[in-house]
Specification:
This protein is α+β, with helices and mostly antiparallel strands. The protein folds into 3 domains: 52 residues, Structural Genomics Hypothetical 15.5 Kd Protein In mrcA-pckA Intergenic Region, Chain A (Roll); 89 residues, 2-Layer Sandwich (Alpha-Beta Plaits), CATH 3.30.70.580; 79 residues, Pseudouridine synthase. The protein contains 6 helices and 17 strands. The strands form 4 sheets. Strands 7, 8, 9, 10, 13, 14, 15, 16 and 17 form a 9-stranded mixed beta sheet that branches. Strands 3-2-5-6 form a 4-stranded antiparallel beta sheet. Strands 1-4 form a two-stranded antiparallel ribbon. The longest helix has 10 residues. It is elongated and about 65 Å long. 30% of the residues are buried.
């Protein structure tokens, strides 16, 4: 069945539909050796190139959208390859599916990480315009005042722009180390750590506990993965206005 070219490219995980549309407008995409135009349709069997390079539209083509959750351990990288030989999150995934990672967690952050076989879903979940909640448990070294919390919620200017927590709640702890639960709606690099560091606090531990309405189960061990239930997958599709 033929579909809009930009949708096929997004579903294959190469980028968002809007990104593909820009490339089409710039004359950088061809279908069966003919320069593509906006509105063109294609099938996964067609020969599609970007800047002359053949792409694989079939690589994530499956009838049913799947989403997998992984409890990432600190020290595990989110890249496919590593010159230092460190373990990758992809080492712990089922091999029968080509998985697209939904965002990433830095080396020292643990917790909930999502993967899907639907490239369009991955791109929309990651895009800031979708305003998807990402909740973290953060252990902070130092005494945090009410004024500090207010400033974190109102927002702070970071090197790459304005950022803020949409919610901050106390999570317990004694002495110099205290736990907080924070919610952000962007996937900027090290955003949670950088917000705390902007107020001279040190983050000694960071765990992602929730993405949208998906919470990490208490019984999901480190580096263990689990498929989401169909109703959970549908909830994610609904959150970004995609059909299943």
């Amino acid at each position: 069945m033929s579909e809009r070219l930009q949708k096929l490219i997004a579903n294959a995980g190469y980028g968002s539909r809007r990104w593909a549309e820009r490339l089409i407008e710039q004359g950088r995409i061809s279908v069966n050796n003919k320069e593509a135009t906006l509105g063109d349709k294609a099938t996964i069997a067609d020969k599609v190139t970007i800047d002359g390079r053949l792409i694989d539209l079939k690589r994530y083509s499956e009838e049913e959208t799947k989403v997998l959750m992984l409890n990432k351990q600190a020290g595990v990288i989110c890249s496919n390859k590593d010159e230092e030989g460190r373990k990758s999150v992809f080492d712990f995934l089922p091999e029968n599916t080509r998985w697209v990672m939904v965002g990433r967690l830095d080396l020292n952050t643990s917790g909930l990480l999502l993967f899907t076989n639907n490239g369009d879903l991955a791109n929309k979940l990651m895009h800031p315009s979708s305003e998807i909640d990402r909740e973290y448990a953060v252990r902070v070294l130092g005494r945090v005042s009410d004024e500090d919390i207010k400033q974190l919620i109102n927002g702070i200017e970071l090197d790459d722009g304005f950022a803020k927590f949409h919610k901050v709640t106390l999570g317990g702890g004694d002495g110099a180390n205290r736990w907080y639960h924070v919610v952000v709606r962007e996937g900027r690099k090290r955003e949670v750590r950088r917000l705390w560091e902007a107020l001279d606090f040190k983050v000694s531990r960071l765990i992602r506990t929730r993405f949208s309405d998906i919470r990490m189960p208490d019984n999901l061990r480190a580096n263990q993965s689990e498929l989401l239930k169909p109703k959970q997958v549908q909830a994610l599709l609904n959150a970004v206005k995609l059909k299943g």
